[in-house]
Design a protein that fits this description.
The chain folds into three domains: 262 residues, Thiamin diphosphate (ThDP)-binding fold, Pyr/PP domains (Rossmann fold), CATH 3.40.50; 154 residues, Rossmann fold; 119 residues, Rossmann fold. The chain has 24 helices and 19 strands. The strands form four sheets. Strands 9-8-10-11-13-12-17 form a seven-stranded mixed beta sheet, with helices on both faces. Strands 2-3-4-6-5 form a five-stranded parallel beta sheet, with helices on both faces. The protein has a five-stranded mixed beta sheet with strand order 14-16-15-18-19, with helices on both faces. Strand 3, helix 6 and strand 4 form a beta-alpha-beta unit.
């Protein structure tokens, strides 16, 4: 692969020396580099391919890093990394010790803020702008947010705060008509209406550019025309949410036309008020497979560039959860499924097609999803909210206030619990057990295999309990035919030492016991609350090793230690867990090994 232009870009300043022909060639080289690297490392493909010209235009139009550009979520920031001095390390992206797949300030001065979860870019950028103002810095801040992230409530809290204020604050709405799943709801329909007026807006940009280049009198005329236009628009049109919140609205503009983008950014920079620039892009642009199937190419594992990333035939935990919900929904018409813009990621795509009236995609709005599920439960339905562990963190208050206090039978299907691998700190599912175990009325389960996951979904659907079923990313490990219907399962080797664990790590424990055969295993079928019988069974052993794929502080290991202390149990106890650190991006196997939670580590601890 030849990067004749890209290899000469060491910082955004180098972009400003290129003509339009060279810039278009550069964009091709960027796409080729992204496709080639992601095909080897896996990663976020379609979103980054769609933002190439936009990223080039942003860095040419603004003075980074003094002007802060925050890419919401960060999965659209691969081109940004390539243009900010990281080409030589780009082949390490998502690898242990390599570049992060998201924005990280400790990685580059051009990454002003940590990103990974959606809808925070406007809040962060507005905070940076106000800090600049208070410190007397003549710098602006730009939030680049996708239309999918605009379904998140936090974005509207920030819009409400920032609107109708003074200062050159710019929001770039990267409108590709998708988040991960297809966008839904009134917000999406509003953007569709705004996209329809592109011819008018192109003429407006052209006139604006001419006037702004005429100096002082040109700007006077331009501002006068805008005041008349804004007054007329406010009288005639009532459906532009940004204008209603006090923002100047520019767009829509072709997000793959660098000249148009630079022109509209120059206009946006001329305002001393918050401005939204509406940019229309195509997710996956430049790679035919990703263009035709942006859902499947949002985040991919390594693949063959010529053949494309083929859908996996092997079922994983997410697929099993979705299949099981489909099965019980056929038998019970009260079963509902809820997702926060993750129908594909959480295995609910088939459910969404088979049971349309009982499937609810609420957008990137986990707080709303929890309370909406509680409302469904109150009304007599049986709601299953499928959500990634790291994203459920945003619904903690709603779990307590809207579900737990009334003890409503909401079912949380917590996908990607534990170590998730290459997505890194922002996506590791290490905190759910710790924060959910603080909630009264909460019942936590963690299956280790597909059969147990099916059993738990089927069982909790019949019970009037608030339940969380947490399961890992990927596939089941070593499986044995055991009874997991009780609160715990004992696999005895006649030892006075016991290894206590739950979830995926039970498969590692089976392998370790098979290798040593000198310790017992207690598998927690019900992770929380822990019954007196479970604590009593653990307290009988002389030595207790607790292996937990989660954060140590507030985890089940500490709960067990506290209970044993209350009983004055005479045993030596060792907790093996993640001890108050954020787990960096690396493979799941590497992370489990680093934190001594894999089979090899269990053998070392108990041999």
């Amino acid at each position: 692969m030849k990067n004749s232009i890209l290899s000469e870009i060491s910082s955004p300043k180098d972009l400003k020396k290129l003509n339009i022909s060279e810039l278009n060639l550069l964009c091709g080289e960027i796409r080729e580099t992204i496709i080639d690297t992601v095909s080897k490392n896996g990663g976020h493909l379609a979103s980054s391919l769609g933002a190439v010209e936009l990223t080039v235009a942003l860095h040419r139009s603004f003075n980074t890093p003094e002007d802060a550009i925050i890419f919401d979520v960060g999965h659209q920031s691969y081109a940004h990394k390539l243009l900010t001095g990281r080409l030589h390390r780009f082949d390490t992206i998502r690898k242990k010790g390599g570049l992060s797949g998201f924005m990280r300030p400790d990685e580059s001065e051009y990454d002003p803020f940590v990103t990974g979860h959606s809808s925070n870019s406007i809040s962060a950028a507005y905070g940076i702008l106000k800090a600049n103002n208070l410190l007397g810095k003549n710098a602006t801040a730009v939030a680049v947010i996708g239309d999918g992230a605009m379904t998140g409530g936090m974005a509207y809290e920030a819009l409400n705060n920032a609107g109708a204020k003074k200062g050159n604050f710019i929001i770039v709405l990267n409108d590709n008509k998708m988040s991960i799943s297809k966008n839904v709801g009134a917000v999406s329909r509003s953007f569709m209406r705004m996209r329809n007026g592109r011819r008018y807006h192109r003429l407006k940009f052209a006139v604006g550019n001419v006037l702004l280049k005429m100096g002082f009198f040109g700007k006077l005329i331009y501002n006068f025309i805008n005041k008349i236009k804004d007054a007329a628009r406010s009288f005639v049109y009532k459906n532009n949410i940004f204008a209603a919140l006090g923002f100047n609205y520019l767009g829509p503009v072709d997000g793959h036309n660098i000249k148009e983008l630079e022109s509209i950014f120059e206009i946006a920079k001329s305002y001393d008020r918050p401005t939204v620039v509406h940019v229309v892009t195509k997710k996956g642009k430049g790679y035919s497979f990703a263009e035709s199937s942006p859902n499947e190419y949002h985040g991919v594992s390594p693949f063959d560039v010529e053949k494309g990333a083929l859908s996996k035939d092997k079922k994983d935990f997410s697929a099993i959860a979705g299949d099981t919900l489909c099965k019980i929904a056929e038998e019970n018409t009260n079963i509902c499924a809820i997702t926060a813009a993750m129908a594909y990621g959480t295995g609910l795509y088939d459910f969404s097609k088979k049971y349309r009236d009982r499937f609810f995609d609420v957008g990137i709005a986990e707080e709303h999803a929890v309370t909406f599920s509680a409302g469904l439960a109150k009304g007599g339905m049986i709601p299953f909210f499928a959500v990634y562990s790291s994203f459920l963190q945003r619904g903690y208050d709603q779990i307590i206030h809207d579900a737990a206090i009334a003890n409503l039978p909401v079912k949380l299907l917590i996908d990607r619990a534990g170590i998730v691998g290459e997505d890194g700190e922002s996506h590791q599912g290490l905190f759910d057990v710790a924060f959910l175990s603080t909630v009264p009325n909460m019942n936590i389960y963690s299956p280790y295999c597909y059969k147990e996951l099916e059993y738990l979904i089927e069982t909790t659907a019949k019970n009037q309990e608030l339940a969380a079923i947490r399961y890992p990313r990927g596939f089941e490990g070593k499986v044995e035919n055991i009874d997991f219907t009780g609160e715990y399962t004992l696999l005895s080797a006649g030892s006075n030492r016991v290894l206590v664990t739950y979830g995926r790590l039970f498969s590692c424990a089976l392998e370790a016991q098979s290798a040593l055969n000198n310790f017992d295993i207690i598998k927690l079928n019900k992770v929380f609350p822990l019954s007196d019988d479970t604590i009593s069974a653990i307290g009988k052993y002389k030595t207790v090793h607790i292996f937990e794929e989660g954060i140590r502080a507030g985890g089940i290991g500490e709960h067990i230690a506290s209970k044993l202390s209350e009983l004055s149990a005479e045993c030596s106890l060792k907790i093996h867990a993640v001890d108050s650190v954020f787990v960096a991006h690396q493979s799941t196997a590497e992370a489990l090994s680093e934190f001594k939670l894999d089979t090899k580590s269990m053998i070392a601890a108990l041999e």
